[in-house]
Write a structure and sequence with these properties.
With 290 residues, the protein is of the alpha+beta class. The protein has two domains: 56 residues, Nucleic acid-binding proteins (OB fold (Dihydrolipoamide Acetyltransferase, E2P), Beta Barrel); 163 residues, Beta Barrel (OB fold (Dihydrolipoamide Acetyltransferase, E2P)), CATH 2.40.50. Helix content is 17%, strand content 32%. It contains four helices and 15 strands. It has a seven-stranded mixed β-sheet with strand order 9-8-7-10-11-12-13. Strands 1-5-6-4-3-2 form a six-stranded mixed β-sheet, with no helix packed on it. Strand 5 and strand 6 form a beta hairpin. The radius of gyration is 22 Å and the shape is globular. The model has no long low-confidence stretch (mean pLDDT 93).
């Protein structure tokens, strides 16, 4: 087998990154967008000593675990790798991966991995960070990076984030477009706005909007922040995080309040938490409570 070969293969497992795993003559091949039980044709795009990477060319026989993704850009967006796999098989696969890791790497033998207790397949994320960019038509876009690149797949809603965040994305982009603020270009380090970040309290419904910028705030943005807080009853605050560094780290060290307050309140385990833009908190509240 060599790079460029077209091979027929059966997918026998799934990696922790969500790629299907097949074998040819004991050579492990990782192939994205496949699922256990698929029979496919794959082009070998990279060949290493211990493994190879392939690209799905033809789906010859569908697995019983293959489903139609709920997201219309799932084939392009790099935010999710498992949407083409039925949810029960996802849970079983992840439980098996924990079992295998503890056995093979941890050296444990006498233990049991309990089933993953989750019945919320979609709408569970209480925090999202969207990089900003400019489309070929000059419009602001926000979304996740395309698979294997830093090209942004523009989205107006995301099925894995809390549904209450969906109405914000399109309108906030439109408002930023009208403000004529420059979007950061990571290639040359020019521009200002870098990310659009939302945080929501699952139990309280409070929402915090944070803009990440390479430049400090100006009057236009401060006025717009006040308008947002007035427009959206559940939006309790708008913050600006200052990050001028050439880095893939999203948040910088300095955050200023533009309107409202700089935290949301969330109820968790009979306690009330104040969550700011940089506060660590489990993104799936239901699972954390379980």
């Amino acid at each position: 087998m060599k790079q460029g070969d077209l091979v027929d293969i059966e997918i026998v497992d799934i990696s922790s990154e969500g790629s299907g795993i097949g074998k040819i003559e004991q050579q492990v091949i990782f192939i994205p967008d496949t699922v256990t039980g698929d029979r496919i044709s794959s082009r070998i795009v990279r060949l290493k000593k211990k493994y190879a990477n392939g690209k799905l060319v033809e789906l010859k026989e569908k697995s019983a675990h293959r489903i139609r993704p709920r997201c219309i850009v799932a084939d392009k967006c790099g935010g999710c790798q498992w949407q083409h796999i039925d949810y029960q098989h996802q849970l079983e696969t992840k439980a098996n991966q924990v079992q295998e890791t503890l056995t093979r790497i941890g050296g444990f033998s006498d233990f049991t991995v309990e089933p993953i207790l989750s019945d919320q397949e979609l709408g569970y994320r209480n925090k999202v960070n969207y990089p900003l960019g400019i489309s070929q038509r000059g419009n602001i876009k926000a979304g996740y990076y395309q698979k294997g690149s830093h090209d942004i797949v523009n989205i107006n809603k995301c099925p894995i984030q809390d549904d209450r965040l969906n109405p914000f994305l399109t309108e906030i982009k439109q408002d930023l477009q009208q403000l004529d603020l420059r979007i950061y270009n990571e290639k040359n380090g020019r521009g200002a706005l870098r990310h659009l970040c939302f945080r929501i309290g699952k139990h309280t419904g409070e929402i915090l909007l944070t803009l990440v910028s390479a430049k400090l705030s100006d009057d236009r943005l401060e006025k717009q922040a006040e308008e947002w807080v007035e427009r959206y009853p559940d939006l309790v605050g708008v913050c600006l995080n200052y990050n001028p560094e050439k880095t893939n780290v999203i948040l910088g060290k300095k955050t200023e309040l533009l309107a409202g307050r700089d935290y949301i309140q969330e109820k968790f385990a009979d306690l009330t938490f104040h969550l700011r833009p940089d506060t660590f908190f489990q993104i799936n509240t239901t699972i954390a409570e379980t």
